[in-house]
Description:
By secondary structure, the protein is α/β, with parallel strands linked by helices. Helix content is 39%, strand content 22%. It is built from 10 helices and 14 strands.
Amino acid sequence: MDKLHAMTTFVRVVEAQSFSKAAETLSMPRSSVTTTIKTLEGHLGTPLLRRSTRTLSLTDAGERYYASCRAILSDIALAENELSTNATSPRGRVRADMPGVIGRAIVLPRLREFEQRFPGIELVLGLSDRPADLIYDGIDCVIRTGELADSNLVARRVGQLNWITCASPRYLKEYGEPVSVTALSAHRAINYISNATGRPLDWRFNVAGENLAMTMSSRFAVNETEAYLQCGLEGLGLIQLSEFVAFPYLKTGRLKEVLASARCSPVPISMVYPNGRHASGATKAFVDWVVDIFEQNDFNRGA
């Protein structure tokens, strides 16, 4: 058995969540992928995957082996990159995950530039409000907002976000403008449901130097940023979102900021990826490129 080939196949099956999709990306027959995984499990003496007609998941042993395979394959890619005669042109596949609004506003408009600068990198982008698990989901790097939990991952701060409270002229005409945070009890709010917890996010303010987190009651709640923004534009209630998402609508007058004096403190935007030993040259190149385009957009001031 070719152990390196088996590891690569196993990792691709986990990342694709499908034997068929993995076979397509590896240009192999599905039967060969299935045989490779069965042979690998026989060699290790333990099942790595739980299979059903609709789902594919890792066993406990599979999770540990997957993490080890990722580290080994990353080390191999790193060694190859370091020996490359053209270190300025890294090659490889990078899987990156980021909030949809950041991806659409900052990263996607610059992809042609990335393609021209790094022709040897295959980039797979995941745009979602649901936070990804780098190890379990097979992600090389992610963009995350807010404070980060301690981990053995590297986090590079790329900027910050200002969260603002705003409403449409239609809403303000019907319900008036709140003059203070305490006046919010008389207003309608649209809640945003966290994809991580399934619960509405707290509304955050800063009053007289003190940070406040409030639970707002609402008739409407959504779990996707574009839908959340649309609810605000339709005048269904107050919304609280990042300034760079709201900016085009503030500029045209379709939204108006309220309670500006009670803005909460900015939250950091970070690029998170494995430490240098496990990060490939392609991943490092993508991370550096993202850091650079955030600096060009002056996100250290949050707008």
